[in-house]
Amino acid sequence: MRAVLTSVAICAGLLGLIAPARADRIDGAWCHDQGARMMIDGPAIVTPAGTHTQGDYSRHAFSYVVPPEDPGAGTIVRMRLLNEETVQVQAGPQAPWETWNRCGPSISLLERIQLTGLS
């Protein structure tokens, strides 16, 4: 019985090593529950309106000024990473913080292609 429990513990530990690791970073594709999406890659961002622009990047935070061609032009958007799967976004200093979640892999790949300009 002890050998079985040891084997189960070893297998569980090995499965933990196989699971994909997510870096504790704000980079990646983010989705809002109402369908909006954005992609952050270092200082580059594809805004929810689909515009490519640059912002101020740190590992756990990001901010940018909404470009002239996007709705809300000139607004400062701030983001803060809560955990590996959740970011809070504030569009303007008086706006409430909204919760966004990481997008699934298929959306992330599509937006990464859009961000890099590959097709």
Task: Describe this structure in a few short sentences.
The protein is α+β, with helices and mostly antiparallel strands and 119 residues long.
Percent strand: 35-45%
Oligomer: single chain
CATH topology heading: Lipocalin
Return residue spans where pLDDT drops below 50 for at least 5 consecutive residues.
4-9, 11-22
User: How many β-strands, per DSSP?
Assistant: 9
Overall outline: globular
How many structural domains can be distinguished in the coordinates? 1
Largest sheet: 9 strands, antiparallel
The end-to-end span amounts to 56 Å
Can you give the helix content as a percent range?
10-25%
Q: Specify the CATH class.
A: Mainly Beta
H/E series: HEEEEEEEEEH
Number of helices: 2
> Quick check: average pLDDT?
82
Rg calculated over all Cα atoms: 18 Å
Class inferred from helices and paired strands: alpha+beta
Based on the coordinates given, report the CATH architecture. Answer: Beta Barrel
Strand order, main sheet: write it out: 4-3-2-1-9-8-7-6-5
